[in-house]
Design a protein that fits this description.
This protein is an alpha+beta fold and about 120 residues long. It has 4 helices and 5 strands; from the N terminus they run H-E-E-E-H-H-E-H-E. Bound molecules: guanosine-5'-monophosphate.
């Protein structure tokens, strides 16, 4: 599937819609999730046009892959989440429940997060 240039995170990257941005480097941007599921809920996204983790791991350069994960660690430490721990989630495709078609890492912390996966409904 072709990358959709009009997805909401592409618009945030281009500065067309606002976001509470807390970090940026050559490879990634991080901002607060609009609907936080934990006291700290940050989205870390690559600057490149990648739809999902599948797309990214198949097509991104080693520098882009390293850059995204370095950024994730930098953000976690910047926000002091390393001190008490955190969770990283990336939803991919239909079964993953992905809603926005630009790869994003959810960085969650600030409280004990409980079970990793809820039982099926
Ligand atoms: P997904 O379900 O695709 O893994 O997660 C998408 C996330 O993006 C959700 O947690 C949702 O709250 C967040 N989100 C959706 N629209 C916006 C927006 O316009 N701004 C921000 N900051 N977050 C958004």
């Amino acid at each position: 599937m072709a990358y959709d240039n009009n997805n909401i995170f592409a618009k945030i990257l281009r500065g067309e819609i606002p976001a509470k941005k807390i970090y940026e480097d050559d490879f990634a941007v991080a901002f607060h999730d609009i609907s936080p599921q934990a006291p700290s809920h940050i989205l870390v996204i690559p600057k490149g046009a990648y739809e999902s983790m599948d797309d990214f791991t198949a097509g991104a350069s080693p520098e882009e892959i390293a850059g995204l994960f370095r950024a994730l660690g930098n953000v976690a430490r910047q926000e002091k989440l390393d001190e008490t721990g955190y969770r990283v989630i990336s939803n991919c495709g239909i079964n993953g429940g992905q809603e926005v078609p630009h790869l994003h890492l959810h960085l969650l912390g600030g409280r004990r997060l409980g079970r990793m996966v809820q039982p099926a409904a």
